[in-house]
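Structure ticket #2291
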Amino acid sequence: MAKYSLSTGNTTANGSGGVSIDQTRRTFEFGDRVAELAPQQSPFFVYLTKVAKKATSDPVFKFMEQRHQWQRRTFEVRGATSSAAYTSGTQVTNMMKMDVGYDAFGRTISTPTKPNFLLEGQIVAIADSTGTVRHLKISGTPDLTTDSGASAECDLTPLYSATCAFADNAKGQVVGSAFAEGSTAPASWKDELYDREGYCQIYKTAIDLFSNTARATEYRGISNEYMRVWQEKLMEHKMDIENSMLFGVGAADEAATGGPTRRTWGILPYTEAYGKVKSFTYSSSDYDDFVDAMEDVFAPESGNSGSKLVLASRPIISWMNKLAAGNFLGNTVPAGQHRLDAQNIQGKFGHKVTQISTIYGDLNVVQEPLLRGAYENYAIMIDLKNVNYRPLVGNGVNRDTHIVTNIQNNDVDGRQDQILTEAGLEIQLPETHCVLKWSA
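Resolution: structure written out below.
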């Protein structure tokens, strides 16, 4: 039974270490403790509460995404060039057109755009048609306006003499810069911050009105029926939050009367829409398929932290456990080669965790009981660095999970309580999260 103290250090108010929750018209803040109830039933909510909780003062919370550019100054050649002899130190006018597959916010886009990060004085490395990497210096200000398409024209000076050609879609990247002694400051460029917003959802769970006669009656099994139902409703409330944090679709519906109804996004549909999705089969996917997927999932240019929480269904938990040496993996590759390091441990928050270490990053796999039915072949890979649980707290009012007691009318010979939470899920850099799907 939940307790509260009348004052700091008071442990003997009713002789049992606290005061019963059976008080008149009290609001009990319960936000930091509700996740501790049967943590194995709601692992995502537990992790959010323990390691990714950040209050918001507005039910519509804005946040900015920053994708750092240092990993992303890559481009492609647009249009093939014929084989020619390039002389070291000799400028080649309008030698190449280049474009990129991401926008000013660092997001991957389907239609290429101009590379605004190319500047005079930079050194670029480009693979020619034979696969040999050639180094050239941008010797003039790149033209971002002349070409009618999405590419930029660059005047380049080879750093060494060679006869070569560059194919359409040849890959290149900036590998540094070099300027003359006593030269002036170069031109510059910058990334942009991407603006997103999320919503706090109001969760309410009411406890049935109990007459005071019913509350005074001693029942078989569990004698206090009111407290039994109260405990079940608290669990129900917690599972409502877990479900919406996993499966919710964010929106704000304006009502004809009263205020809007806001819904938070869940990590799984949000990642399916804006993040990464990888597909496997139980029967034919092997170690190589899994590692190939991790190569993309842990790509550093996406802003990954190098460690993921993986919420998985039971069939997928079984499949992943068989990746350990001596089991599935041992039958897939020769002994001693390319093994995953997998081990089962007891997690900090009451969960059993399968830790899988790959060459690209670490996976902490936890069973998610709600991934069942239509979602029984799903797992969601979450970068906890880029998610936050956002309870509404402002102006001295805390709308994190709390219990409002005695909400019945004053003339009712009985009692009714309700549990209320107003909170949402903030999901940043969706490309750092990944939905994993399996099929037979």
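Closing remark: The helical segments are 43-51, 212-216, 225-247, 267-274, 287-297, 314-321.
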